[in-house]
Structure to design on (181 residues):
């Protein structure tokens, strides 16, 4: 017998389901509008976490853009947390975090995407965190388009794909987590 679920759990599950349906509809509409288009998921926080950890591990943006993929992250990197540019409660600290994330994206040349614009637009206004999310979500695609070996497509057992940035250790962890058919 299942334990009773709280209203919060039910609402959260309903929101996730609603979001998944929206994602499915959006992907279907994109494929209908653009024959042959590939629609992949991206997770901005995961991209930021990896880029932040790689920065701490002294992996340069140049190496990420054009170097061979290697084992760069310490196994303890999971304990490394990037700046909370969206959820930090103190506005002044959140602004500093937005600044740090924007600087990280600019240092790697990722902010030169169509969503990047100039530095001021990245950092200011109510929607700065949303702009950073959009660019972070595009980083793996930008890396892939530039031929970077660090771009990685992680697959799940249901055939889903999420485009990430990953070193050799992280790739191995993803591949070990997904059973082979």
């Amino acid at each position: 017998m299942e334990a009773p679920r709280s209203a919060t759990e039910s609402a959260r599950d309903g929101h996730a389901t609603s979001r998944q349906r929206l994602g499915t509809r959006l992907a279907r509409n994109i494929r209908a509008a653009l024959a042959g288009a590939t629609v992949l998921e991206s997770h901005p926080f995961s991209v930021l976490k990896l880029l932040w950890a790689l920065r701490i591990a002294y992996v340069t943006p140049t190496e990420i853009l054009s170097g061979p993929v290697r084992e760069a992250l310490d196994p303890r990197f999971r304990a490394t947390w990037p700046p909370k540019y969206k959820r930090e409660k103190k506005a002044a600290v959140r602004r500093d975090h937005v600044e740090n994330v924007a600087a990280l994206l600019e240092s790697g040349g990722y902010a030169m995407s169509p969503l990047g614009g100039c530095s001021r637009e990245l950092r200011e206004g109510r929607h700065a965190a949303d702009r950073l999310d959009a660019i972070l979500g595009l980083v793996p695609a930008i890396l892939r388009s530039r031929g970077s070996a660090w771009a990685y497509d992680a697959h799940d057992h249901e055939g889903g794909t999420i485009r990430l940035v990953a070193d050799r250790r992280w790739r191995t962890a993803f591949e070990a987590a997904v059973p082979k058919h």
Q: What stands out?
A: The chain has two domains: 11-40, 43-177.
